[in-house]
Amino acid sequence: MKLFILAFALLVGLFASQAQANSKMVCYYDSSSFTREGLGKLLNPDLEIALQFCSYLVYGYAGINPNNYQIFSLNEGLDIGKHQFSEITALKKKHSHLKVLLSVGGDKDNDANHPNKYIELLESDKAKQAIFINSAHTLLRSYGFDGLDLAFQFPKNKARKVHSDVGMVWKKFKKIFTGDFIVDPQADMHKEQFTAFVRDLHNSLRQDNLLLSLTVLPNVNSTWYYDVPAISGQVDWVNLAAFDFLTPDRNPEEADYTAPIYPLNEQNRLPHYNIDYQVDYWLSHQCPSQKIFIGVASYGRAWKLSTDSGTSGVPVVSKTEGAAAPGMQSQIPGLLSWPEICSKLPNAGNLYLHGADAPLRLEKHPENTRRHGNYAFRAADANGEHGIWVSYEDPETASNKASYANAMNLGGVSLFDLSYDDFRGLCSGDKYPILRAIKYKL
Question: What is the value of pTM for the model shown?
Answer without folding.
Answer: 0.92
